[in-house]
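S.,

Sequence below, as promised.
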Amino acid sequence: MPRVSRQQTEQHRAAIEEASSRLFRERGIQAVSVADLMRAAGLTHGGFYGHFESKEALAGVACAKAFAQSVERWQGRIEQAERPAQARAAIVRAYLSEHSRDSAGLGCPASALATDAAREEPASPLRQNYLGGVSQLLDLLAQVQPAPGTEVARRQALVELSLMVGAQMLARATQGNPLSEAVLDAACEHLLPLAEPDPPRGRADPDSQPPAAQAD
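The prediction came back faster than expected:
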């Protein structure tokens, strides 16, 4: 039987990480079996333990990967904006869009993995990487507040991220009922009451309808 090259091994590991990052956000960690994620990665079930000692160990890696994707998207919106207020509006609109609600597997793990992380021990890889990821998002959101670098900006970022994550979780839990869209609309209007006129949230705004590989 031919040996697998180092390059193939790395490719297989990357495929497992990518598949698990998406499936865990989409279905929840407990609802995804090793067979499910290996199938999604296009690999055989038996190869899993050559890369990870357990699904729990993989969950921490997948969580970190998901947060890295969100951080990259938020940084991109900040860099593309002319002013901090525009960057903040772009982040909020994209996060509270119907597209993000409908694309949990591609979106922010702060909302998608909150319940899973809450049930883990504080020292677990998942809990630690979740904490680190949330801290990174808070740092970015604090940068686009009216007084960046201050304690006021940090606390405002805490309030805004809490509202965004909570609204997205509630919108997903009530999806299929008009309440779901109402939650997103109300949260967005609360956070951006003085924003410059823009297309309606979740419809014509390009930040609210990102490519299929993006969500938050």
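The radius of gyration is 18 Å.

Coffee later?
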